[in-house]
Amino acid sequence: MQTGRSIMLDSPGVNDTYQPGGRADPARGVRPLAVCELDRGLCCLRVNEAMAAITRQPLADHLGRRPQEILPPPAGPLDSLCSQVLASGEAIIDVDLRIAAHDDRLLVTIVPRRDDDGRPAGVTLLFRSPTQRDRLGRTLEDRLRFEALLSELARGFVGSRFDEIDAQIRQGLERIVEFFAADGGQVYEFREDGSARLLSHALAPGFEFDLPEVPDVEFPWIAAEVLRGNEIRISHLDELPPEAGRDRLSIASRGVRSVVVCPIVVDRRIGGAIALNSARRERHWPDELVDALRFAGDMFGAAITRRRAEERLAREKQLVEAILDSLPGLFFMLDENGRMVRWNRNREVVTGYSAEELRGRHFLEGIAPEYEKGAAEAFARGFADGGAQLEHEVPTKDGRRIPHLATGRRVMLAGKAYALGMAIDISALRAAEDHIRRQQAELAHVARVSAMGELVAAIAHELNQPLTAIRTNAQATRRMLATGEVDAAELDEALEDINADAARAGEIIRRLRELLRKGHPEKLPLDANELVRSIEPLTSLDARHNNVSLVVDLAPDLPATAGDRIQLQQVMLNLVRNGCDAMRDGARPRGRLVLRTALARPGTLEITVEDAGPPLSDEAFARMFQPFYTTKPGGLGVGLSISRSIVEAHGGLLWASRNPERGLTMHLTLPCEASGPQ
Amino acid sequence: MSADPVVFVVDDDASVRRSLARLLRSAGFEVEAFASAEDFLSAPHPERPSCLVLDLHMPGIGGLDLQHRLAAAGLDPAIVFLTGHGTVPSSVRAMKAGAVDFIQKPFDGPDLLAAVGRAVDRDRGARVERREREQVRVRFDVLTPRERQVMALVVAGLPNKLVADRLGTSEKTIKVHRGRVMAKMGAASLADLVRMGEKIGVRGDAG
C-alpha cells in the first residue's frame, strides 16, 4: 500500500470543536467505526465492538457468517456488492444501506484486500453514519488512503498468532504515527490492578524521548480520565486542568506540546490507551483523527483481548496438562469408537507404553482379555446412561497386570461425545481386602478355636464322666469276680454300662473333632434334632456354671433339612450361651433353658431357644441383631449378627420374641423337605 | 449305735453315680446315692458312721455349697470330693473346710475306697468324740455357778490356796467345792478333770 504523510486530517480548522480538557461530547456523534472483515468466501473473519452494536449480536456469533445473515434486513444488495468488489478489486464507497431496524442510516464502504502475492484476499466493510461521513476526508483519494489504512490495520490482526500480537500492535502504531505525521505514539495496557505499562511505542524519525516506565504515576490525571472512558485532546499544555500538574510536568519534560489519548476497550472494559504526541508544534486533534485513533484502539483492544484470552487458554491448557499429569490414576478420554484420544503421563509411566504406542489405540487393548466383555459393556453403558464403573486389570508392557477401578462418563465436547474418566490403581485396596479376608478367616478360626478352648474344658469334663464310670465299673466287676460272688445279672448290667459310656465318650470326641475342623461351608443333609442333641454336651458346662438346667424337647419325625452342620452348631451354641448368660445376670437361683424343635409349617422347621432371663430394654431388644451391639461387659456384639447371616445364608430366619412371663425366645427357621422322613 | 457305716454318693451323672455305688457296694459299703445336693439334704440322716462322696460341679447346689450348708447346720460330715479336673482353688477351699480327700476323676478304685475308708474312720472317731463331749457337757451343766468358777481355776492349775484368794473365800471351802466338782464330773483325777475342761472349753485365768 502506498504510504505518505497525509495532512488531510490534521488541517487546522477542519474540526475545531474540541473541548477544553479534551472530554468527548457524546452528542457530537463521534462513534467508533464499525468494521467487518470478510474472507474470500465473503464470510466474517472478524468484527469490532461497534459492528456488534449494529448487529446486536455477540462478537463471536459473527464469525463464519455472511453479512446478510447478521445484519438486520434489508441488507440484500450487500452480498452482491461485496462479490463485485472482490471480483473487480475496486472499492465501493458510502452505499446507503437504510437498515430499517437501525435508528440511523448506515453508509457502508467496501474495500478490497489482497494478500502478499496481490491476489484478492477478501473485503473489508466499514460502516458509518452519514454525520461521520461528513467529517471525513474531502477528496476521494484521501478517503481511499484512509480506508486502506484502516483495512490494513484490521487485516494485520486477522489470523495472527497471539504471540505476534504485540508486534502487530507496534506495526499498526508506526503506521498511524506515520499516517497522521505525529512525532510519537504509544499504546498502554492497564493491568488488573489499574496500573499501566507501556505496551508499544513509535517515534517519527529524528525524535527521541524517555519512555514512561510507570505511566500511571507520571500521568495520573490522564490515566484516571482514560479509565473513566474519556478521550483527551490537548493542543496546548495550558489546557490541562490544575489537578493535572504531574501530567503536565511529565509531558513538558519530554518536550511534547500536544497530546491526544483514547481509551482502548479490552474484554469489555477500559484496558488500555492509545496516544499520539506532537513535539515540533502545537496541533489540533480533529474528530477524524480521533475516530481513526479510536478505530485503531478498537483493533488493538480486540487483539489484546484475544491475546489475553489465548494466554489464559494457554495457561488453562498448561494447567489441564499439569493436572492430568499429576493425577495418580490413569486418565482416559475415548472417542465414540473407543479410541484413546487423551491420556495422562502416568499411563505411560504405569503401562510402560510410549505416547506413540498409545495414540489411537482402542481402549480394549489396555484391558486384560477376561475383562474385555465387561469393559465393552461398561463403555456402551457409559455412552447410554452417562456413567459407568468397572473393575479390571491393566496389562503393562512388561507383562504385569495391575488391578484398576475405572470410572467414566459421557461428556459432550464441541458436539461430539467422548467417554472421559479415570482408572485408579486398586492393588493396595485389593491386597488389603485379601489381607482382611485372610485375617477374617484366621479370626473366625481363632474365635472358633478359642471358643473351643472353653469348650475343651467342657468336653474334658464330659469325657471324664464316662471314663470315670467305665473305670469304676471295671474295678467293681473285678472285685465282684475276685470275691467269687458273681451275680451274672449284675455283671451284665455293669458291662452294659461300660459299653454305653464308651460309646458316649466316642461320640463326644467325634463332635469335638467336627467342631474344630476349619471346614468350608457346605450344605449337607441335616437332622435338626440331631443338631440340637449334638450341642447338648458342649453346653452343659455353661449351663452348670450359670445354674441353668437344659431342657430339650424334640419333635419326632421332623423332615430333613440341609446345611453346614458346623456353622449351625455354632449358631446354636451362641444362642444357648446367650441364654445362659442372660439367666446368670438374672440372679435367679435356677433357670430353665428350653431347646425345642418343631415343624413350623410344611417346608419350614423351627428350632427355638427359650430362656428365662430378665426383661430386656426396648432398645436392647430392637438392636440385639445389630453388629457390635452388646449388653455384655467385654462382649463384642457380633454373635447374633453373625448367627443371623449364617441362618439367612441357609435360607432361614433368625429372630427373637419376648416370652409372656420372662425372658426371650430365639427362633431359628430352616427350610426343610415338605414331608417327614419315610 | 449302729456300727455299719453308710456312704452317701452325690453326683448328677447317673452313669458315674451307678458305677460308684457298684464299686462301693462291692467293697462292702452300704450306699445311698443321690442325683443332687437338694435330694441329699431332703433325705433322712440316721445317726451312724457315714461319709459323703460328693461331686464338686453340679447344677443347683454345688459340692462346695453343700459342704458349707452342712457346716452351717453344725454337721461335720467326712467328705470325699470328686472333681472332673484339677481346680486347685476349689480343692484348697474344700480341704480347709474339712474335706477328707479330694479325688480327681477318673480315679483308681483302691484310692477311692481307701479315701472312703479314711473318711468313715474319721467320721466314726468324730462321732465318738462328739458323744463324749456331749456327756461332759451334760455333767458340767449340773455344776453350780460357784463350782464352775472353782473348776475353771483348778483346771488352770491354781492350788486351792490361790483359788480361795481369787474367789475371796477360805481354802477349806474351796476344798469342799472341788470335791463336789470332781464327783459331779465323774473325774477320777485332776488330769481327768483338765481333759474334760479342754473338751468343753472350760478355761480359767491362771494369771
Could you write a compact summary of the structure shown?
The complex is a heterodimer of chains A (678) and B (207). Chain A has 678 residues and is of the alpha+beta class. Chain A is 43% helix and 23% strand.
The total domain count of chain B is 2
**Quaternary structure state of the chains depicted:** heterodimer
Percent strand of chain B equals 5-15%
Number-wise, the strands of chain A total: 22
Q: How many domains comprise the coordinates of chain A?
A: 5
Largest sheet descriptor of chain B = 5 strands, parallel
- What do the pLDDT scores of chain B average to? 84
CATH architecture of the largest domain in chain A: 2-Layer Sandwich
Distance between the termini of chain A: 115 Å
The CATH class label of the largest domain in chain A is Alpha Beta
Instruction: Give the proportion of residues in helices of chain A.
Output: 40-55%
Helix-strand blueprint:
The complex is a heterodimer of chains A (678) and B (207).
Chain A: E1 34-38, E2 44-47, H1 49-55, H2 67-70, H3 77-88, E3 92-96, E4 107-114, E5 120-128, H4 130-135, H5 140-157, H6 165-179, E6 184-190, E7 196-203, H7 215-218, H8 220-227, E8 232-234, H9 245-252, E9 258-266, E10 269-278, H10 287-326, E11 330-334, E12 340-343, H11 345-351, H12 355-358, H13 372-385, E13 387-395, E14 401-413, E15 416-425, H14 427-483, H15 488-516, E16 524-526, H16 528-545, E17 548-553, E18 561-563, H17 565-585, E19 591-601, E20 604-610, H18 618-623, H19 639-649, E21 653-658, E22 664-671
Parallel strand pairs in A: 17-19
Antiparallel strand pairs in A: 1-2, 1-5, 3-4, 4-5, 6-7, 6-10, 8-9, 9-10, 11-12, 11-15, 13-14, 14-15, 16-18, 19-20, 20-22, 21-22
Chain B: E1 6-10, H1 14-26, E2 30-34, H2 37-42, E3 50-55, H3 63-72, E4 79-83, H4 88-96, E5 101-104, H5 109-141, H6 145-155, H7 160-167, H8 171-185, H9 190-200
Parallel strand pairs in B: 1-2, 1-3, 3-4, 4-5
